C-alpha cells in the first residue's frame, strides 16, 4: 500500500504534481495582459459604434468563465497542440442589438463587428485570429489562446449590472476583488449567446460557475484538485480522450462525491481520487446531466466510439490507481506507475511516497446516521 | 458568520443526501428535490432552505400535490403547492443542529402527508378550508351565532383613500364611526348579505376548485351545504338595481363569503330592473353569467376582540369603570382597560382629567403630537375610540372633585392621579358613603419610578387608603423606598415645566400593567391581595410582599373616631 497523496498535493514549498500543473506566473501575466487588450479593443469598438448608431455610448461588460474562473486551469501537457484557454464573455444590452425581448439583429452582424476589430488587433499584436461557432479566438502564443463569446442581455438587467458594478468598483478600491466577476443581480433565464450558425441561443455560463462554487463549498477544495488530476490524466492521454470535455470530468467527479456521501469522501487526495476513479467508468456510460439543467447532457458531445474508448481508459485508470494505492509497497514503482498515468510532471521523488503509514489498515469510517432533532414547543412570546 | 454558514450548508447537504434528495443547482439558493415518504406515497417535493437560522422552517412545495392521494391533501396551499407541515408559531427549530433539523422537518412532513392521505386529517381540511377558499378577507362584526340578514359595507378605516375594508355587520357597525371620521360621510346603506348556517365546509375533489361561477358554486353547494342552494339567486331577487350580491356560509369551521357579480353583458336595465322579480329563474338558466369570488371572514366583533387574549378569564365587558387621571400611568391604563373590553357589551369606560397634553408629556405619554393641547381625558377617549370603535368611552374635562356624585354610578373607580392629596380626599368621600360606594383602586409610582403600587379599597374590615399612612408626615405602612433614598425632582423653568418627578416611560407602563391585572382579578372575583407592588429599581427600592392590610383603628378616615 502506498500513500501517494503527497506526490499529488503538498502544502508549502514541497514539490508535488499539482504545483507542476500550475501555469507559470509569466504565462498568467501574459494572458491577463492580452485579456485587457482584447477588452480595451472591444470597449473602443462598441463605444464608437454605439455613439454613431444610437447617440449614446454603450460599454460592454466582461465576465471570465471556464477553467480560469473555476480555478481548474492546468498548464497544457503537450504543446502544441494543447493550449491554455481563457474564456472572456462580452455582454451588451439588448437594445443595442435593436430588440427589446430578443435581439432583432442577427448574431452574424454582431460577430462581424467583433471579428473585424479583433482581427485588426491580432495583426497589431502578432496574434492569430480564428472563428469558432460561438466565439472569436485569439491565439496569443504557442501555448495559449483567448476565446471571446458574445452575449446579449435585456437593457434593464444591463442597467442593474452597471449600477452594481459602479458600487462594487467603489468597494473594490479597498478590497482586492475582480469587479468584473460580480454578476449576482443578473437573472439567468434572459442571457442569450451569439452563435454563428444558430443565431441567438439561451445560454448562461454563470449557472455552471455557481454550481461549481457551491460544490466546492460542500466537498471542499479536494474536489477542485481531483478535477485537475482528472483533466491532467485526460490531457496526458491525447488524442484518445480529446472528446472528454473538462465539464464532463468535473460533473463526474461531483456525481461520484454525491454517490459516496460527503462524510465518506476521503481527506487524502490519492484516496479521494481513487474513490472517484472507481465510479468514473460507470458514470462515463452516461447519461451525465448538467447539474444546473437536468434537461441538458454534458456527455452529449461524446460519440459512441469515443465513449467506448473513454470508458475503457477509465477502467484502466481505476485499476492502475488501485494497484498503486492499495497494493504497491515500493515507492520507486509507485512513482513510475503514477508517471505512466499522468505524465512526467509527477515529481520523481520517492521520499514523497509513504509505504509504512499506508500499510496500517485503513479504518473506513462511516458517518453516523443523522437522527431527527426532537420537537421542541415554544414557551416564549411577545 | 459565513464560515459557520458554510458548515451548515455542508451538514444540510449530508442530511438531504441521507434522504436521497438532490440539490437543485438550476436555481439560486439551497433547494433540494426528492420524495417525501419515499418508501410509501413517494410524493415529489422541492425543499427550500432560505433561513440557516431556522427562524422560518424550510419551505416544502409538493410538485404534484395530488400524487399518492385521491384528491386534495390538507395542508397544501392551492396557489403554489406549499405544504404546511409545521406550525412555526408552536415549534422552535435548532439552528445549531442543521442536519438533524432537516431530518426532523422531512420526517414531520412525511407523517403529515401519510396522515392526510389516510384521511386522518379530514378535520384539518375543514380547519384549513379558508386557505383554499380565497385570498381576500372580510371583517365580520357579528356575534358567532348570528343568522339572518346582515349587510356588507365598504369602509375606510384609515386616511388612505385607496385602502378600503369590507365589513359585514347586522345593521350598524361600530366601524362606521371610523369611516365617518375619515370621509366626513355616513357609509352607504350596505349590500344585503344573508348569513346562512351550514355544516362544516370542505372540498369535493371531483368538482372544479375554487368555484368561478354560479353553476360551479351550486354544484359544490349541493354536496356541502344543500340548505344554502339558491340563496344567491334569492338575494338578487330581494334587492333592486344591484348587479352584485353577497351571501355568507356560516359553518363551524369558519365564515365563508361569496360575492356574486352578474357579468357585464347582462347588466342591462331589462335584466336588472324590469325582470328583477323573476331574476332567480333567469339566473338558473344562465348560471355561468354570474361570476363568483370567495372571501374569508375574520372575526372583529367585540366578543372576539376582547376575549381572544384572556383565555378562561372574563373580560371587562358590561362593567362601568371610572378612571380618574389620564396622565402617564392613567393613559396606559386606559388603553389596557379598553383592550380588556372596558366599554364593551353595554358597559362604559369613563375618563376624567382636567389637564391638557403638553410637549413635556410626549416623552412618556400614550398620546403624541396630534393631541397636543387637547384635554388628556378627551384625547385618550378619542384615540381609543379610533383604535377600538366598539367601545363606549366617555370623558370629562372637569376635576373629579367637582363631580363626586358620579363616582357612585360606577362599578369600579380607579384613581391613577398619583396625587396624594386628591387620593386622600377621594378616600374620605368613599369611606363616608359606605356601603353604597364601589371599590376604588389607587395606583401610583414610588420614588423615581422605583416601584409601582396598586391598592384596592372596599371592604370596611380592611385598610382604606388613609390607613396606609395614618399621619401625613409619618412613616408609610409599607416602606418600599430604601433608607436614605432621595427623590429627584426636576424643574425646567425655561421650558415652562414646573416641578415634576423624572421616571422613564417603562415604569409608568409597568404600573398600568399592575393596575390592569388587579382590575381583571376584580372582574373575575379573584381579588386576592388588595395591596400589591412591583419593585423595578432594586438599588432604590425593597421588595415588599403583597397582602391584605387590616384597618387601623386610629385612621382619621375609617378608624374608630371617624
UniProtKB/TrEMBL annotation, chain A:
One of its GO terms (molecular function) is ATP binding. GO terms for biological process: defense response to virus; nucleotide metabolic process. Keywords: Antiviral defense, ATP-binding, GTP-binding, Magnesium, Metal-binding, Nucleotide metabolism, Nucleotide-binding, Nucleotidyltransferase, Transferase. The keyword Nucleotidyltransferase applies. This is Cyclic GMP-AMP synthase. InterPro entries: DncV-like_NTFase, DncV_C, GAMP_synthase. It comes from the Bacteria. The keyword Electron transport does not apply. It comes from Bradyrhizobium zhengyangense. Residues 221-349 form the Cyclic GMP-AMP synthase C-terminal domain. Residues 60-151 form the Cyclic GMP-AMP synthase DncV-like nucleotidyltransferase domain. It catalyses: GTP + ATP = 3',3'-cGAMP + 2 diphosphate.
From TrEMBL, chain B:
Residues 313-472 form the THIF-type NAD/FAD binding fold domain. InterPro entries: Prok-E2_B_dom, ThiF/MoeB/HesA, ThiF_NAD_FAD-bd, Ubiquitin-activating_enz. Residues 26-135 form the Prokaryotic E2 family B domain. SUPFAM superfamilies: Activating enzymes of the ubiquitin-like proteins (SSF69572). GO terms for molecular function: tRNA threonylcarbamoyladenosine dehydratase; ubiquitin-like modifier activating enzyme activity. One of its GO terms (biological process) is cyclic threonylcarbamoyladenosine biosynthetic process. This is Thiamine biosynthesis protein ThiF.
